[in-house]
Design brief:
15 helices, 420 residues, alpha/beta, 35% helix, Rossmann fold
Length: 420
């Protein structure tokens, strides 16, 4: 193990978002055999315990959002993540080897992504021979899942110079190696391209059911947050590492991801301002809105074994909104309340933020983004940076990363990370 220190405008494609009438949030009774979720902020005074912070959260949930509100909110979220660590350790890096047989937690492993293959890249002869690949592990906390596998691809250079970097995040059941077409394309254009395995995926998994088992364990025990938040902690440690590298410009680090990876990108950017340009793809959604408007089925179906287990534990005959709400409260406290999109998306302002979704995506219904979009637009207007925010809903597209999405993301990064 060694120390880190020495290593070192296109038109918006909007279309009308329909309004659905909200329904009253349900208060759910918990059967006695299911333990109550851990407190949202168990180890310090903040949003659910401190009156001033509670007022700040209320303001974040309304129309008036100030810089001070966003900073307090961000600090509360990071403290919440820190409070759920097994034990913090000094960030360190270990060498790793390339993965020869990546693990995909799918019965039929994916073989090709038209969207990723379409990513713009420089026409360089013998590109593969000119690329440099690095594999390392970052130690982000104690325990088996505290070992973060990192894949970095860049162009070989005789003289080290600081370049923009982009972190790419994979979708559910995939891994960092799946993203190689994107990594190589961006590297050919002068970026340092970085990918990681999220918790219980890739090198952090041992079977086809590792992620599913971790989700169910989180529901049963309430001691981990495998859905989104634990990986967000890793991404805060990752940016610690990237900003210390001699070949990365610390002011130009972007982040993007697909589906689950889009959610990781969204929350990591909310939590850490060092992610300076943000493009979540088919990941941003309103969790509370989906519950209140009976539009949760698409997201639930993507990790259905978890919700089936919760249904049985709660004595329900079918998965319903009450089951959904209890699961989110248990495995990702605050996801459908304080930390939902209407509060966290505006807090990314004024950094450049491009949200890309499918217009017909059942997992990320566009109607659920009406309030986050409105509040984010207001936040960017107040920051005098309205051009830094854009939401694209590609008409007729469900939960799929398309070639258009990849091109829009590429253009956004070039616009904001390559400008002098």
């Amino acid at each position: 193990m060694k120390s880190l220190l020495p290593h070192l405008p296109r038109p918006t494609l909007f279309y009308s978002i329909p309004r659905l009438p909200p329904t009253a949030a349900h208060v759910v009774a918990r059967p006695p055999h299911v333990r109550a979720p851990a407190p949202l902020f168990p180890s310090y005074k903040c949003a659910n315990a401190d009156a001033d912070a509670r007022a700040s959260m209320t303001k974040m949930g309304g129309e008036a959002v100030t810089v001070a509100d966003a900073e307090k909110f961000r600090s509360d979220f990071v403290q919440f993540l820190r409070s759920r660590r097994s034990e913090e350790v000094e960030l360190s890096v270990e060498p790793a080897k390339p993965v020869e047989s990546p693990l995909y937690q799918e019965a039929n492993p994916p073989g090709f992504s038209e969207g990723m293959q379409s990513c713009p890249k420089e026409n360089i002869r013998n590109l593969k021979e000119l690329l440099k690949e690095e594999n390392v592990y970052l130690i982000t906390e104690k325990g088996e899942q505290g070992r973060l596998p990192v894949l970095i691809i860049s162009m070989k250079e005789d003289i080290v110079q600081k370049r923009p970097a982009i972190v790419f995040l994979h979708s559910t059941h995939k891994c960092k190696e799946w993203l190689r077409p994107l990594l190589e394309a961006y590297a050919s254009r002068g970026y340092i391209a970085v990918a990681v395995d999220s918790r219980y995926h890739g090198e952090r998994a041992s079977s086809l059911t590792t992620y599913r088992d971790a989700l169910i364990s989180s529901w049963k025990k309430g001691d981990t947050m495998p859905f989104i938040f634990d990986t967000v902690w890793d991404l805060l440690k990752l940016v610690d590492y990237l900003t210390k590298r001699e070949d990365i410009d610390p002011s130009k680090i972007g982040i993007t991801g697909e589906s689950l990876g889009g959610m990781h990108a969204w929350f990591a950017a909310f939590a850490d301002k060092r992610y300076s340009v943000v493009v979540p793809i088919i990941g941003v959604q309103g969790f509370r809105w989906a519950i209140d408007n009976d539009m949760w089925q698409g997201r639930v179906d993507s990790i259905k074994p978890l919700f089936e287990e919760a249904r049985k534990d709660l004595g329900k005959s079918t998965i319903d909104r009450e089951v959904v709400e209890q699961v989110w409260n248990r495995i990702a406290p605050g996801l459908a309340s304080d930390f939902d999109a209407p509060n966290t998306i505006p807090a990314i302002a004024p950094r450049p933020l491009l949200i890309i979704n499918g217009g017909n995506d059942p997992r990320c219904p566009v109607a659920g983004l009406e309030v986050p979009k409105s509040r984010a637009s207001e936040a960017y207007e107040k920051a005098h940076r309205p051009e830094n925010f854009k939401l694209i809903a590609e008409p007729g597209v469900a939960h799929q990363m398309t070639s258009l999405m990849v091109k829009e993301a590429s253009d956004w990064f070039d616009r904001f990370l390559k400008q002098q």
